[in-house]
Amino acid sequence: MLSERRLKVLRAIVQDYVGTEEPVGSKALTERHQLGVSPATVRNDMAVLEDEGFIVQPHTSAGRIPTDKGYRLFVDRLAGVKPLSAAERRAIQGFLEGAVDLDDVVGRTVRLLAQLTRQVAVVQYPSLNRSTVRHVELLSLAPARLMLVLITDTGRVEQRVIDCPAPFGEASVADLRARLNSRVVGRRFADIPQLVQDLPDSFDEPDDQGTVATVLSTLLETLVEETEERLVIGGTANLTRFGHDFPLTIRPVLEALEEHVVLLKLLGEATESGGMGMTVRIGHENAHEGLNATSVVSVGYGSGGEAVAKLGVVGPTRMDYPGTMGAVRAVARYVGQILAES
């Protein structure tokens, strides 16, 4: 275990390196921070931190920079989450509250996160696996053609046009709509097949039974199709500001960001254990080789303390962790509120 004094030195090194982009020397540390010890003692502490693998000397006669291990200790032990100012919170709320539908909420969230953190923002659409049904609308388009509209508790809307095996009157449409909603509203998607399986038999006419079976088949297909996870990325151009933070080139990072499966896996790993909890994955903790020079800060969002999806940012390991964590958490909280109220 490191002493409190050496933890303080490590914190100072991380803060200075993130702020200046320059390797940090003992003289600069004692001048900029109230460490309460001589430069010789700081040099000794830095030597211990280097031996333990928390900092490294990038080249001779230079100062030191944090390693992945050093950043990990900083995040776990030393970094509080920096709260946003009242003005920043008002700006987030005002920007997100103007959204007109779920696509707009996700799009605005990506732009906002990228602007606040100046990193690459990643926002996952609410997962239907973790959603419940808010309403099923059934509309008659023609005597034997219907439109099915499925609305989730997170504001996601799916529409399907159904060609029926026989004409289906307005009264029957209203009857089916009422029976469907009485069974599925407020229920999880996984439960729906069982809840509606006997619905066709509750109609008297064989033609009506065939149409009800067709509607249910379309509904269940929609649930299966739309469980595929979707996400939106924004602010990729922000990476160009950090070119020297990546070995040789940022191309491997850009290629990894294009693979949505990779990002979903990162976000998925981030909250599997903690629901709404925040996760920070640093450098080589990211399994994908292209992201070994990056850190991923992510958190679940949703309402009622249950995550329906994740959002986060990807940036270089030389990141303002307290500020980034604060922004990610605040945005997630507001998105959850908007989904709950929508």
Number of strands: 10
The helix fraction, in percent, is: 40-55%
Overall form:
elongated
Spatial strand arrangement across the major sheet: 7-3-10-9-8
Number of helices: 12
Beta content comes to 15-25%
Question: Which runs of at least 5 residues are low in confidence (pLDDT < 50)?
Answer: none
Task: Supply the helix-strand structural class.
Answer: alpha+beta
For the sheet with most strands, the description reads: 5 strands, antiparallel
**End-to-end span in angstroms?**
49 Å
Radius of gyration: 26 Å
Order of helices and strands: HHHEEHHHEEEEHHHEHHEEEH
The average pLDDT score comes to 85
Please, could you describe this protein's structure?
There is one protein chain. The protein is of the alpha+beta class. Helix content is 46%, strand content 19%. It contains twelve helices and ten strands. The protein has helices at residues 4-20, 26-32, 39-51, 68-78, 86-97, 102-117, 170-184, 192-196, 206-225, 251-258, 260-271, 321-341; strands at residues 55-56, 65-66, 120-124, 133-142, 145-152, 157-163, 231-234, 278-282, 294-303, 306-316. A five-stranded antiparallel sheet has the order 7-3-10-9-8, with helices on both faces. Strands 4-5-6 form a three-stranded antiparallel sheet. β5 (145-152) and β6 form a beta hairpin. α1 (4-20) crosses α4, α2 crosses α3 (39-51) and α6 packs antiparallel against α12 (321-341). The longest helix is centred in the last third of the chain and has 21 residues, at 321-341. The two termini are 49 Å apart. The relative contact order is 0.13. The model has no long low-confidence stretch (mean pLDDT 85).
